[in-house]
């Protein structure tokens, strides 16, 4: 006797069950993938919204950097941290004079400014101040220097004459006898010596009796 197996319903039911499970898994996987895609899309959008463009302002960005070891110029393509490290090195190496608006004489060491560092002067001029009060140094001409010297010499006098012009002194200006002769108002004493053969002024004395005159003197006796 033949037996016909009843496998149609069970097989069909099992396939449908498996199909339903597979569809469920697909739905679950699809939901997970969809959720991940949504999160990824949100993160990408956030990065796009917050990324820096060429014209964006980075004033509020926090940057960590280290001072450079040596002073070198900044280069195109370097990071902000490297550039800031180079800038810090330059600022650190600057001395006090770099932060002054003006430099006073007390900031310049003594005897360090050579003639080569001074401004060049016009030909035949002298550095000086020909004003009547304290002032800056100027380049004085020959005429100005002479005028300054004359101003000093006119304050000096010789025998009552100022030196503003050439002066010719006479014998009377210095209390001397003129070369043409004159009258002495006092005694003239010649040097006492025994150089009898030398032409020189002699002491000439007159007396009523002979006596021994001083060396080099001539004695005349009259009655």
Short summary:
By secondary structure, the chain is an alpha+beta fold. Helix content is about 30%, strand content about 10%. The chain has helices at about 10-50, 80-95, 140-155; strands at about 125-130, 140, 155-160, 160, 205, 215-220.
Number of strands: 6
Structural class: alpha+beta
What is the typical, i.e. mean, pLDDT? 78
Distance between the termini: 222 Å
Shape: rod-shaped
Number of helices: 3
Order of SSEs, N→C?
Answer: HHEEHEEEE
Strand residues, percent: 5-15%
Give the proportion of residues in helices: 25-40%
Largest sheet: 2 strands, antiparallel
Rg from C-alpha positions?
60 Å
Strand order of the largest sheet: 1-2
Low-confidence stretches: 1-12
Topology:
Blueprint: H1 8-50, H2 80-93, E1 126-128, E2 138-140, H3 142-153, E3 157-158, E4 161-162, E5 203-207, E6 217-221
Parallel strand pairs: 5-6
Antiparallel strand pairs: 1-2, 3-4
Structural write-up:
This protein is α+β, with helices and mostly antiparallel strands. Among the domains are: 14-47; 62-98, no CATH class; 119-169, no CATH class; 190-223, no CATH class. Helices cover 31% and strands 9% of the residues. The chain has helices at residues 8-50, 80-93, 142-153, and strands at 126-128, 138-140, 157-158, 161-162, 203-207, 217-221. Strands 1-2 form a two-stranded antiparallel sheet. A two-stranded antiparallel ribbon has the order 3-4. It has a two-stranded parallel sheet with strand order 5-6. It is rod-shaped and about 190 Å long. The N and C termini lie far apart (222 Å).
């Amino acid at each position: 006797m033949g037996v016909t197996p009843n496998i149609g319903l069970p097989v069909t039911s099992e396939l449908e069950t498996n199909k339903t499970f597979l569809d469920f898994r697909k739905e679950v996987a699809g939901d997970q993938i969809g959720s991940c895609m949504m999160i990824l899309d949100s993160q990408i959008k956030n990065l796009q919204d917050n990324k820096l463009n060429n014209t964006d302002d980075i004033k509020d960005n926090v940057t960590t950097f280290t001072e450079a070891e040596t002073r070198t110029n900044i280069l195109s393509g370097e990071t902000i941290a490297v550039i800031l490290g180079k800038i810090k090195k330059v600022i650190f190496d600057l001395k006090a004079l770099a932060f002054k608006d003006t430099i006073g004489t007390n900031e310049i060491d003594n005897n360090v400014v050579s003639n080569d560092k001074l401004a060049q002067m016009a030909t035949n001029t002298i550095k000086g101040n020909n004003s009547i009060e304290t002032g800056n140094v100027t380049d004085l001409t020959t005429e100005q220097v002479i005028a300054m010297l004359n101003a000093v010499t006119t304050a000096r006098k010789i025998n009552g004459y100022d030196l503003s012009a050439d002066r010719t002194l006479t014998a009377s200006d210095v209390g001397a006898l003129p070369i043409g002769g004159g009258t002495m108002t006092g005694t003239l004493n010649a040097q006492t010596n025994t150089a009898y053969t030398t032409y020189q002024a002699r002491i000439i004395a007159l007396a009523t009796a002979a006596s021994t005159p001083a060396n080099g003197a001539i004695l005349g006796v009259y009655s």
